[in-house]
Amino acid sequence: MTRLSVNLNKIALLRNARNIGIPSVIESAKTVIKAGANGITVHPRPDERHIRYSDVYELAEMTRRDDLPRRVAGTAGDVASQRVTVEYNIEGNPFTGRLMELMREVKPDQATLVPDDPGANTSDHGWNLKKDGKKLVPIIKELKALGIRVSLFMDPQPAGIMMAGQLDADRVELYTEPYANAFRKNENLDEMLERYVKAAKTALDAGLGLNAGHDLNLKNLGKFCKIVPGILEVSIGHALIADSLEMGLYNAVKEYLKILAQR
Predict the structure, then answer these.
(1) 214 is annotated as an active-site residue
(2) Which residue among 5, 19, 44, 52 is least enclosed by CB atoms within 10 Å?
């Protein structure tokens, strides 16, 4: 089954609107883990407008605790006090802010390298490896030496994905906003999905693991994961947090997991 990593940036954005500590990023992380999420994602930016550097360290400590509860599969609501493996994924641009410092000190399970500008509203394109590939080589090498899995945020373009494999990345994360737009507008959806299928097959042929993320939601997630082969993990934040305003955070996570279980 495709794993779900929940991006907590929007929780932090709401918290930062007031100086009273709510909603709590840590308590929200505990809730999504209790609901069955397989991972936690954060994307700290240099201005700390949502996730703060202090959050990164606190979440690292929390995800490594030995008493994280998870609902037991097949039960109506019992919670087991068992060791739960929750992956910690830190996203960001390694050439801006304190990202590499965080990687060295926190050593997350996965580093997702994203070529966003410091002032970008959100990530809106993948790496141009013809331009930036050489600069990424020592970054990738250092992260892997630290025991961190490395994923590169990429557009669904086979040529670029082949280069990601040549740079010794472990995975690529397919940037899915173009798919989400095509789905929402119901325009050229089949052609768009074929682009992602070709990109995914290229990644698999290159020995790369496949992640996906950006604007995936309850409506478009199932179709994407059913048609695009080999998706190991989806990282979802904005839509899931928006859904939680109506159904609650715990229930929102369960709905996304239900879709992923059906692929």
Answers:
(1) yes
(2) 19
Could you say which DSSP state residue 262 is in? T
Q: What is the pTM of this model?
A: 0.91
SS3 59: helix
Active site residue 43: yes
**How many residues are given for the chain?**
263
Would you call the peptide bond into 23 cis, given omega within 30 degrees of 0 as the criterion?
yes
Q: Which of 50, 91, 173, 233 is catalytic?
A: 91
Please provide the CATH number assigned to the domain covering 3-261. Answer: 3.20.20.70
Tens-digit pLDDT profile for residues 159-189: 999 999 999 999 999 999 999 999 999 999 9
Of 231, 251, 13, the closest CA to residue 222 belongs to 231
Q: Any idea where the domains of the chain sit in the sequence?
A: 3-261
Query: Is 91 a residue of the active site?
Result: yes
Active-site position among 50, 173, 214, 233: 214
Sequence-distant (6+) residues with CB within 8 A of 52 are 12, 16, 44
Catalytic residue among 43, 50, 173, 233: 43
